[in-house]
Design a protein that fits this description.
The protein is mainly α. It contains 21 helices and four strands. It has a two-stranded antiparallel ribbon. A two-stranded antiparallel sheet has the order 2-3. Helix 4 runs antiparallel to helix 13 and helix 19 crosses helix 20. The protein is globular, with a radius of gyration of 22 Å.
């Protein structure tokens, strides 16, 4: 314990080793779903060609690498794993939609990770340290709105996975049919445990979120509860079992090294531009998209979680941001090399922060626990979705505190901040919320003839984002330029 305290400066940070370990466990439990969801997404029941076990191995190892570097190098309590949204884009847009082979798609992520690493290190000429410069150049209120928007994003994810909201053709979303809820219905169990967690937190109970998840899981297993989010026939995602079942103790075993995906990304680079292979333009477009989304997903998440954790200083700058971005980039490179889409910092890290996590020991704890997915995949697959989902709603509520710090009386900031917040849940994308917040902020400043209030970085972001989202016909401007140059 003393060695851990000295390594991570736990006492100096005002924490204890036990609290850091508990915080790591809390974060892990709220994001352990990725050990099941990411392999399921990337394999898509065999449609993409990526084996489930290979993707599971890559998910666990990429998370371990990212969390370990974040903990030891940046000494921040932020966890990393392959990102949701990015894996959906990888699977449905790139591989199944564009017809890009999965190994070439992994190559695009691999190259993106290398560029990301270069942009994270101040020692690299021209582009080194750009990510930190960028996040520090965005107006404070927009960054605060990012945190509140992520809270709303977490809430809609959590309520959907709890079974409390559903899609509606007329109103987009609607409340579920609550009159059907019974003692063994996941929505009922998760709401009871959500209230239980809130009561425990209000009473100052340590580990309240873990207790809530544990009670919901045990209740679900004991009653074989219906998990509405996983009922594909009823409109759910269908990633896991429709009914909660006890983990099988005999299913413990190592999943094994990847058979097909190990270093496939580097091998596939030779196919880009070759006759019959993926065109250079297509490859660049996919790589740029991964880079764009990764930059803003990570920047927004790091700032928001860092602010919640007290790691944003009086100059509105995130502590050890270069080191944090480096951890993210390194994990992306490793993950792509062994078989998974982009690795990024997780918004669920707030769960550990709320439990008192203050140092890198929290992140390392998450990383080590992620490796258990190589042996206990059956246990994590059996944690009911609704059990972990209620924690996301609690965290979302905590993150909404930040909205009070926005200067809503500033007419030039109110709309950009508002769009930043609401577009995240409504588009299911952190990057889209940040992008349109920046676009509208710059457009309003231009309309007010206050060009001098926009720094060079904001001008560059405005131009790039406008090109990324807008363009002639059904193409964005970047894609159109590639077409004109004969790269597509």
């Amino acid at each position: 314990m003393e060695a851990l305290d000295q390594q991570f400066g736990v006492t100096a940070a005002g924490s204890t080793v036990n609290r850091e370990l508990r915080a790591g466990m809390t974060t892990f439990l709220t994001m352990a779903y990725i050990l099941v969801v990411n392999p399921s997404m990337l394999s898509n029941f065999g449609a993409t060609g990526i084996p489930f076990d290979d993707a599971l191995f890559a998910t666990a190892v990429a998370a371990f690498v990212g969390c370990t570097i974040m903990g030891l190098y940046a000494n921040l309590p932020f966890a990393l794993a392959p990102g949701m949204g990015l894996n959906a884009y990888f699977t449905f847009a790139v591989v199944l939609g564009m017809g890009v082979p999965w190994d070439v798609a992994l190559a695009a992520v691999f190259v993106e990770g290398i560029l990301f690493l270069a942009m994270s290190m101040p020692q690299i000429p021209v582009i080194g340290g750009f990510r930190t410069t960028m996040i520090n150049s965005i107006p404070t209120d927009l960054k605060i709105a990012t945190g509140a928007g992520i809270g709303m994003f977490l809430a809609i994810i959590g309520l959907r996975e709890m079974g409390w909201i559903m899609d509606d053709g007329a109103t987009l979303v609607n409340i579920a049919a609550t009159e059907t809820f019974e003692y063994n219905h996941g929505a009922f169990i998760s709401m009871v445990c959500l209230i239980l967690t809130a009561v425990l937190m209000a009473r100052g109970q340590k580990g309240a979120i873990i207790i809530g998840i544990a009670v919901a899981s045990l209740w679900g297993w004991a009653t074989e509860a219906y998990d509405p989010y996983n009922d594909f026939v009823a409109g759910g995602a269908g990633w896991a079992s429709v009914y909660a079942t006890w983990p099988d103790p005999s299913a413990i075993g190592f999943v094994g090294l990847p058979e097909d995906t190990l270093m496939a990304a580097t091998s596939a680079l030779g196919d880009v531009g070759a006759e019959g292979g993926t065109t250079v333009g297509m490859f660049l477009m996919v790589m740029i998209t991964f880079l764009f989304v990764d930059i803003f997903d990570t920047a927004g998440t790091l700032y928001s979680v860092g602010r919640q954790a007290g790691y944003v200083d009086e100059n509105d700058e995130l502590m050890n941001s270069d080191e944090a971005f480096t951890a993210d980039a390194a994990a992306t490179i490793v993950g792509a090399a062994i078989g998974t889409s982009t690795t990024t910092t997780y918004i669920e890290s707030v769960a550990g922060v709320e439990e008192g996590g203050k140092t890198g020991l929290t992140a390392v704890t998450v990383g080590v626990l992620m490796l258990t997915g190589l042996f206990f995949s059956d246990l994590f697959q059996n944690i009911p979705t609704f059990a972990a989902a209620m924690a996301l709603v609690v965290i979302g509520a905590m993150m909404m505190r930040q909205a009070a710090d926005i200067n809503w009386a500033d007419a030039e900031m109110a709309l950009p901040a508002f769009l930043t917040m609401v577009l995240m849940p409504f588009t299911y994308s952190i990057a889209d919320g940040i992008a349109w917040g920046v676009i509208t902020y710059c457009a309003i400043k231009i309309g007010m003839q206050k060009h001098d209030e926009l720094n060079p970085v904001m001008w560059g972001l405005f131009a790039f984002m406008a090109m990324f989202y807008l363009g002639p016909g059904d193409q964005n401007t970047i894609d159109w330029l590639f077409t004109q140059m004969g790269l597509n």
